[in-house]
Amino acid sequence: MSEFAGRNVFVAGASSGINLAIAHAFGAAGARVTVLSRSADKIEAAAAGLRDAGVDAQGIACDVRDYAGLEAAFAAARERHGALDVVVSGAAGNFLAPALKVSANAFKTVVDIDLLGTYNVFRASFDHLVKPGASLIAITAGQAVHPMSFQVHACAAKAGVNMVTKCLALEWGPAGVRVNAISPGPIADTEGMKRLADPERESAIKRRLALRDYGTKGDIAEAALYLSSGAAKYVTGTILNVDGGSDLGDASADALSA
């Protein structure tokens, strides 16, 4: 029997993409799952898909910028499933734009969804966690540590997410709560790749990766399972790169043939 059988998982930003894949992975491993996103129709469809797969799942519509709404969401999740073993915060917003085209409001919107949203999810979850033993996971990005043109808003937000992860790991470790983050690289079939990478540039992007290919949503889901498993019981405050080596820099030079 999987160690996740009967455990309770909450995934924010899970109407589609990587976060929904994480929810399905935990559900397939036997967990009960609550998924949250701001669109009522989309999150109910996501929850229905989980239930169709045999998962005890519910969907809750809430914007991660709404702290009071999140408090109610976590209370509802606990009422249905019990105290939470795993919380994943993955809601995000992004777009490509030069800084001179990013208004103050647009910058604030991305920071509020990514950074404030991550803090809100984790802070609102604390009183509903299994303690000791809970695993909190933020979904961050390479922009947190690598400055990128046309990404000032996302770089600022994700850098903050990394520091929230590390600071909460310090503060909440004594309660037995582990806090980590996953930093995905280029992941196929995601909204982020559709927005940030022109399909015509796919081969050039892959040539720069040490592993020469995009990752899958399943790769990120497996990392989330690992970070919440007994195998990672001594891991906290870690930013886990699951990126095919993209954090290492440009690997397009063929050193093996040199």
TrEMBL record:
Pfam families: adh_short_C2 (PF13561). It comes from the Bacteria. Keywords: NADP, Oxidoreductase. This is SDR family oxidoreductase. It comes from Sphingomonas corticis. InterPro entries: DECR2-like (IPR045017), NAD(P)-bd_dom_sf (IPR036291), SDR_fam (IPR002347).
